[in-house]
Amino acid sequence: MTDKQILLIYDKECPACHFYCQIVRIRQSVGQLVLIDARENPAVLQEISAKGLDLDQGMVLKMDGQLYYGADAIHLLALLNGRSGVFNRLNYWLFSSKRVAAILYPILRSCRNLLLKILGKTKINNLKQDDNEEF
User: Fold this and answer.
1) What is the domain-level CATH number for residue 14?
2) Number of domains in the chain
3) pTM for this structure?
């Protein structure tokens, strides 16, 4: 087992995102997956914002100092996946293909944004864009 931490920065107020992040697993030999709520504004949020990555449009995976965003993040998670349980096998099957991840992620993101609009949630707006608080 390794001590390496792999950070997954996501929107905890999104029920779908929270469910996914709670159930996804990575192999122990790869490292420890650490979940970070993007709304808590951790130090890593500044790094993400400095790179121009909009957390309202995608989750971020930080591994070995590298940031992976949106479809790239979910693709890498699938490759690191422990494949234990039905959900993780399905996750691997769907997102281990970079091309499939690039097609499906925007669809899932649109569903997420619609869900958050229905729930009346505000955007994270980590890039501090004007008039960008609501979905």
Assistant:
1) 3.40.30
2) 1
3) 0.91
